[in-house]
Structure formats: C-alpha cells, structure tokens
Write a structure and sequence with these properties.
Layout (H helix, E strand, L loop, with lengths): L1 E4 L3 H4 L7 H7 L7 E6 L2 H4 L1 H14 L3 E4 L5 H11 L4 E4 L5 H7 L1 E5 L1 H21 L7 H12 L1 H11 L2
Parallel strand pairs: 1-2, 2-3, 3-4, 4-5
Length: 164
C-alpha cells in the first residue's frame, strides 16, 4: 500500500513544511505502508527548493520522493542525478522503464498504462453500444484474476468473519 503525503501549500513554504510529514511517518502502523513525499515546488520555485524539501522529507522518514512537474528529459536527468540517492518515483513517459531503473528510479507511474486502459475501455463500451455485447475472449479467467489482484477473497474472508 502506498500513501502520498501532500503538505498544504500554506505550510509547504515553511522550512519544516508544517508537521504533516513527521506526523504521517510517526503514525505509520503497517510496516508495509510506503510513504511517498510529493513536492510540486519544481515549476514555481526551482531545483534548490526541491532539493531542500527532498532532504527534509527523507529526514522525516518518507520512503520515496516524488517530484511532480518533470517536463523535459533534461529535468528528468537532473532529478536522477541530484536526488535518486534518495529512493525516487517518476510519473511520466520521457524514458522507457528499463532506462528509468538504470537512472535509479525505484518506482514509475507510466502514463501509457492509463491511456491504454482508457483506449480498451472506450473500445469495449463502443462495442457494447453498437452490438449489445462485448466479445468475451478470456473473460472468465481474467475476471478471476482481477478479483485476486484486487484482494476480493481477502475482503470476503474479513466480511465472513464479522458477518452476523
């Protein structure tokens, strides 16, 4: 499970960013919870502020750093060079996943997954609208796999445990 910590903008300018970072990390109860500290400071404030914030987030206990607003390959390279000694997340499609890993990124949100999912969903809905049905293909196996990935059996077990 991942949680992104966002400090309200009115607190983000303070050297300690308010107490949000420390309280989120200090309140962690699940050792598998990953706290992702995100900063939107790049575009309005530049790299010096991003670097200061990144180090403060890490010192407060964040597991991953997410610098939002990386728009160019030069910015991506600088992000990797200056901050990937702190585990970093990249959100975008400026480089293939293997190259991002080689640059030191530990987690990637690739925008292509969202557009691929949208395209397939749109096409399925158009097929349903035009033909009244969607070709099943591997639907039974995929449905079962989807339920497993979403953790439905675990939630059903919890529900069964507390059902009256």
């Amino acid at each position: 499970m991942a949680q992104t910590l966002r400090v309200p903008r009115r607190q983000a300018g303070h050297p300690d960013g308010g107490h949000g970072r420390q309280s989120a990390c200090g309140a962690r109860r699940d050792p598998n919870l990953v706290i992702i500290a995100r900063t939107d400071a790049l575009q309005p404030n530049g790299w010096d502020d991003v670097t200061r914030r990144a180090r403060a987030y890490r010192d407060a206990g964040a597991d991953l750093l997410f610098v939002d607003g990386i728009r160019t390959r030069a910015e991506l390279d600088r992000y990797a060079r200056e901050l990937c000694q702190i585990p970093c997340l990249y959100n975008g499609a400026l480089a293939p996943a293997a190259e991002l890993a080689a640059l030191g990124f530990k987690l990637t949100i690739h925008t292509g997954t969202l557009t691929a999912a949208f395209e397939r969903t749109r096409d399925a809905m158009l097929e349903l609208k035009q033909h009244g049905t969607i070709a099943a293909g591997r639907a039974p196996e995929l449905f079962s796999e989807m339920l497993d990935v979403l953790g439905v059996p675990q939630y059903q077990a919890i529900e069964d445990k507390y059902a009256r």
